Amino acid sequence: MANEPSVQTVEEGDDYYHVRFRDPDEFDEIRTPDWADEASDSVSEGSEVRTGKESGSDDWAVQSVLIKKSVGEEKAREQAREVVETIRS
Known about the structure:
Blueprint: E1 9-12, E2 16-20, E3 27-31, H1 35-43, E4 48-54, E5 60-68, H2 73-88
Antiparallel strand pairs: 1-2, 2-5, 3-4, 4-5
């Protein structure tokens, strides 16, 4: 995985805060991989990680992390950053 940038935006959905690290237009393909569930759930139960295959490359990077709304927006930002760090280590 490539180096992860800082949080770009946080969008409120029905059940999740969608914490975006990269613009989805940067990717040829976006997936929610099963292998990331364990890492993300170790930080925030029920969270999801979306990864993208970078345009013109074979590299994959975290595009966004979905955190349950019940934690609040600021905590969602913190937990999303922690999820990214957990995946990188």
